[in-house]
Amino acid sequence: MSRFIRVVPVRDAVSSLLSIAPDPGMESIVLSEALFRIPHADIIASHDIPGFARSIVDGYAVISTDTIGAGESLPAMLTCTGRIEMGSSDPGSIVAGECRYVPTGGMMPVGADAVVMIEYTETAGDQILVNRPASSGENYVAPDEDFATGEVIIPSGHRILPQETGVLAAAGILSLSVRRIPRVAVIATGNEIIAPQCDPLPGQVRDVNSIVCESFILQCGCIPVPCGIVPDEPDALTAAIQQAVLTSDAIFISGGSSKDERDATARVIAELGRILVHGIAISPGKPTIIGQIGNCPVIGLPGHPSSAFMVMRAICGPLLSAMSGIAIPEHACSATLDAGIPSAKGREDYVRVHLRDGVASPLFSKSGLLHTLVQSDGYVRVPAESEGFETGAVVEVILW
Amino acid sequence: MSRFIRVVPVRDAVSSLLSIAPDPGMESIVLSEALFRIPHADIIASHDIPGFARSIVDGYAVISTDTIGAGESLPAMLTCTGRIEMGSSDPGSIVAGECRYVPTGGMMPVGADAVVMIEYTETAGDQILVNRPASSGENYVAPDEDFATGEVIIPSGHRILPQETGVLAAAGILSLSVRRIPRVAVIATGNEIIAPQCDPLPGQVRDVNSIVCESFILQCGCIPVPCGIVPDEPDALTAAIQQAVLTSDAIFISGGSSKDERDATARVIAELGRILVHGIAISPGKPTIIGQIGNCPVIGLPGHPSSAFMVMRAICGPLLSAMSGIAIPEHACSATLDAGIPSAKGREDYVRVHLRDGVASPLFSKSGLLHTLVQSDGYVRVPAESEGFETGAVVEVILW
């Protein structure tokens, strides 16, 4: 089958893709790989943290009732029975009338129920004068005060932030089960396409789309699987796709830009699976194909790099985001157009713009050229229901 | 020397650090590693792109003067001399009265100066009826129209975006010289600190700061160099720092949280180099040390993980950004405080908040606890000149 299905709106194309976004499943990783990963179950404290009563100041561990009424004029006088070393597991104990020096982070001696900051004490031989009353529980944390056994440390589905890797370390979580990072196969097709390391003869062009796809996939937090350049032969493309389905969770095929090649890609996808969308009401990027082979979404991107890239932004980003569980941040600003952007109603236009001092200049060029991708700072989206923007209009520019 | 220098404002601490930020220099990388790297010189096209006259539509290459006056009622009749294959280096030539089929992306035959889209033609045997006049230059790109030899493809200092990796591929740029990614050594000190894979005895705590430092460094686009846990012995710390200076562009030392340990760290830094700042008017994070050993900035972070992390956000981020050349995006939103935040004048406070439905709840807890790092969605910065915010105040929340 290679009949053209009707051109669908961008939002329908995105819905189609999201409806077939596969769950990449789970994998086990070690703590040092946990940054920005997403646990698939609540991570629970298996023991109390910090696990012992811990001073939060440099000072003297005391029994608070010994300090009732203490003041500068009438300090409480306590016998210092020594000094607790950092990391020591044996802080000893104190009884009424005694105190013991404890550094910040040190373990409280048995019997103590408060710490007096060193600033509020004076030393007189082995006696410590305490100038201020301490209340029970002051200046230390209880063994389970940070996290108690059984408490949720990081909830399921939460993307682990830098500071949270430390909490995992504190809890001794050395491995964890997280959402697997989706792998996305990248295939380039076209008899005119050669690898970047080759010198093109006239009529040949270096493969641009593969590395742009791979870079975009990386930017989306997924893993690109480069599958090379396939000539415009259905058997070769079939073999490449069948191989890619085995190794990847989704496939991006940047089609040749001629109609024959696009048709070949659609035909092969249809034979191996099914086609959901063939043609999107988007400019550039109309001849995009959305298919599915087994559980694997397959996107046939246009051959023109600038078209392919805009389609990635418009529809592949949401797919990868759904698969990875990671929202792709989009940064935008307002700008005034210094030239009009005409647009056909019923079609979403993605017009690249150059931005300077709040003024956006639309970059129009012949299709297939790369330089608008380099010269632009972002793009303006013209909604399907709009006929474009006039000079002087204030528009939202979505920044690269 | 270990005298305390006066506590300095946050902005002065940042200025001090920026004044000693080393240039990490350059390194050569291959094209597949170019994403998000920063070239140190303009990248120039060494040949024309696309390098040949290239059709941008499916249609017939013609000599435009053959189509003057052509219309639906009186089409121009041209002899089709064949079909140009994609990737073919030999498109042949045409003379007056002839045309040749050329697919999108195909090479123009010699003699042709326009392409008529297939939609405006009809086939009659080996004759092609052209229903519309073509103007010279229409529907193809000239050999140097995308980039001409000598043109700047990507300017020096520009961070290479996904779409731009494709332009490098098109130009056959297989390797490039870019700013080296800074390496940052991470040392934890403290006799009470044990590796996360160990089971803590009472009085011991697992190393939280190292992995938080390493995660933060990764988030900033730099390379962490884990240097392990060093006991509170000047000789051990000296050896660890001397080793780190050899391998890294900057050093983060998370100090023990007791005053003795902080003093030891400052003393060692002073002996090996110099101390610029010892104490910052920031809460949490006051006992931070900024030093320099050779050309290597050394930051002595507080031992409390939440303090260390806020200092990373406040002063280490700007340093890494200056070294890497990569701005670290900061996302913020407005929210209404549901409780007041008192603050001492002259000190910048970083108060972690929980955020829900536009309401920010300040999270206060004893120092040294980790859970505010997990429970918070971001933080509110109270400027040094402010005495805090009252309940109901609308504040800016900087999101994690």
UniProtKB/TrEMBL annotation, chains A, B:
<feature type="domain" description="MoaB/Mog">
    <location>
        <begin position="185"/>
        <end position="322"/>
    </location>
</feature>
<dbReference type="InterPro" id="IPR001453">
    <property type="entry name" value="MoaB/Mog_dom"/>
</dbReference>
<dbReference type="InterPro" id="IPR036425">
    <property type="entry name" value="MoaB/Mog-like_dom_sf"/>
</dbReference>
<dbReference type="Pfam" id="PF03454">
    <property type="entry name" value="MoeA_C"/>
</dbReference>
<keyword id="KW-0501">Molybdenum cofactor biosynthesis</keyword>
<dbReference type="InterPro" id="IPR038987">
    <property type="entry name" value="MoeA-like"/>
</dbReference>
<dbReference type="InterPro" id="IPR036135">
    <property type="entry name" value="MoeA_linker/N_sf"/>
</dbReference>
<comment type="pathway">
    <text>Cofactor biosynthesis; molybdopterin biosynthesis.</text>
</comment>
<dbReference type="InterPro" id="IPR036688">
    <property type="entry name" value="MoeA_C_domain_IV_sf"/>
</dbReference>
<protein>
    <submittedName>
        <fullName>Molybdopterin molybdotransferase MoeA</fullName>
    </submittedName>
</protein>
<dbReference type="GO" id="GO:0006777">
    <property type="term" value="P:Mo-molybdopterin cofactor biosynthetic process"/>
</dbReference>
<dbReference type="Pfam" id="PF00994">
    <property type="entry name" value="MoCF_biosynth"/>
</dbReference>
<dbReference type="InterPro" id="IPR005110">
    <property type="entry name" value="MoeA_linker/N"/>
</dbReference>
<dbReference type="Pfam" id="PF03453">
    <property type="entry name" value="MoeA_N"/>
</dbReference>
<dbReference type="InterPro" id="IPR005111">
    <property type="entry name" value="MoeA_C_domain_IV"/>
</dbReference>
